[in-house]
Design brief:
Strand 3 and strand 4 (about 105-110) form a beta hairpin. The chain folds into three domains: about 1-70 and about 405-433, no CATH class; about 75-175 and about 345-395, no CATH class; about 190-340, no CATH class. It has a six-stranded antiparallel β-sheet with strand order 9-10-11-12-14-13, sandwiched between helices. The protein is globular. It is of the alpha+beta class and about 425 residues long. It is built from 17 helices and 16 strands. The relative contact order is 0.20. Helix 9 crosses helix 16.
């Protein structure tokens, strides 16, 4: 599926000049108004890309409309009174993947903590289960199969919680398709990775500003990023490593498209094939924050949202992400991390259609969530590991969790339908050629 170029530019016009859209289409209400409000102030070019992606399927819409998910979450005891835990906040099956830790080992874990906050520990699991059901087409599974897969994910999660010991997944401890992914990553070379993202010119690399992974940055943006990197380099053991070679506006993800984000090519280990890519992304308040405030769930007093994201990520992951730092860029709280050839998201829809494979992968995801929550238990208001274990042992909540995930899937599909009708009606998504 793809979005037609006419609709793409119609979306761009709609974002830049909403008053023009009112002349030819009804004023958007409900879902569209909420989405416009939640995305106010973002870069129009990348925001257009976000809306176009969200129109493609209910699953991608779920990824891009985290705020609406929590707006619709039922006010039941399971999601109101459950023990508190440090939560990812935007958990779905494509927010698991590989990353290189600062110990140079590669791990498989949750890899996006932009929405992280202290919340009832059940919130992450219901969002993960909803993503599995919303993503049936992506996973090449029937509705009945996604229900069975959800059951396996939940059972693995409960079992890992009840065991009470936070473990982790690396190549030596992984199985099945996750092991296949981590094993294949060993063969990836930095030069090949750089060749996909850069071009060589006069013996040096420059970013490939192709509108797919990156867009040109303005002179002012380049100045701000370069000044920051110069200052940051002075605090590092090898300042020359961080010498800036090129800067672009990065295109990545769905939910965060449109926030300030840059890809920075730095000298690294010297030769063109030793260059490194860094990611600098603006940190904005968690989509869960308004709901947690209404529930009077007190959050720590963070210096800023970048500190929140980095601190929670370090608490939940088994090893810290390489180069992960909170920072201020032109006054904006941002997150710095490295981009590596050993990083890959878990595109399980590409891994085959066998139901056993799917069950195996999502069971691993369920265990990882439990381990991450246990690892951060007892920190800054989070429930103790014993409290999480005791709740998991009760078990009667599991059936309600599955029922609510199905309900949230239906709600998400209805929201997606309203969204597509608001921004372009039937011609918005075209069949693949």
């Amino acid at each position: 599926m793809f979005v037609s170029i006419d609709v793409y530019y119609a979306l761009l016009t709609y974002i830049l000049h909403p008053e023009m859209s009112k002349q030819t289409s009804p004023r958007p209400t409900g879902v569209m108004d909420a989405i416009i409000s939640n995305n106010a102030g973002r870069d129009p070019e990348r925001l257009t890309m976000k809306y176009a992606k969200m129109a493609q399927s209910p699953f991608i819409f779920l990824r891009g409309a985290c705020d609406l998910f929590y707006d619709a979450l039922p006010d039941s005891s399971l999601f109101r009174d459950a023990p508190l835990a440090w939560c990812c906040g935007d958990l779905h099956f494509e927010n698991f993947g590989s990353y290189k830790g600062d110990n140079r080992q590669v791990y498989f874990d949750i890899n996006d903590y932009d929405e992280a906050a202290l919340a009832p520990f059940t919130w992450d699991m219901v969002r993960l289960l909803t993503s599995i059901q919303c993503g049936a087409k992506t996973l090449h599974a029937t509705h009945a199969e996604t229900l069975a897969v959800s059951q396996h994910c939940l059972e693995a999660y409960r079992s890992a919680l009840m065991n009470g010991k936070p473990l982790w997944v690396e190549r030596e401890t992984s199985v099945g398709l996750v092991n296949e992914l981590l094993s294949n990553l060993q063969t990836r070379k930095r030069a090949d990775f750089l060749d996909k993202r850069t071009i060589r010119k006069n013996g040096q690399r420059k970013l490939k500003l192709d509108g797919v992974k990156a867009l040109p940055a303005s002179d002012e943006q380049k100045r701000i990023v370069t000044e920051f990197m110069d200052g940051f380099a002075g605090t590092q053991p090898d300042p020359v490593f961080f010498t800036v070679l090129d800067i672009g506006r990065r295109i990545a993800g769905t939910g965060s498209l449109g926030v300030e984000r840059f890809v920075v090519l730095v000298k690294g280990k010297g030769s063109p094939d030793g260059n490194y890519l860094l990611d600098i992304k603006e940190a904005i308040p968690s989509a869960m924050a308004p709901h947690l405030a209404r529930m009077r769930i007190k959050q720590p007093t963070w210096p800023d949202d970048a500190s929140r994201v980095v601190t929670v990520q370090n608490r939940m992951q088994a090893a810290n992400h390489a180069f992960l730092h909170p920072l201020k860029l032109g006054g904006l709280p941002c997150i710095l991390k490295g981009l590596h050839p050993s990083e890959d998201r878990v595109a399980i829809g590409d891994w085959g259609t066998k139901l056993d494979h799917l069950k195996e992968v999502v069971s691993t995801m369920g265990r990882i969530l439990a381990w991450d929550q246990l690892r951060a238990s007892g920190r800054s208001g989070a429930a103790s590991a014993d409290e999480l274990i005791a709740f998991a042992q009760r078990g009667e909540w599991a059936s309600e969790m599955l029922e609510v995930a199905t309900q949230m899937t239906l709600t998400t599909k209805q929201q997606w339908q309203e969204f597509t009708e608001s921004v372009g009606s039937k011609q918005l998504v075209q069949p693949a050629k």
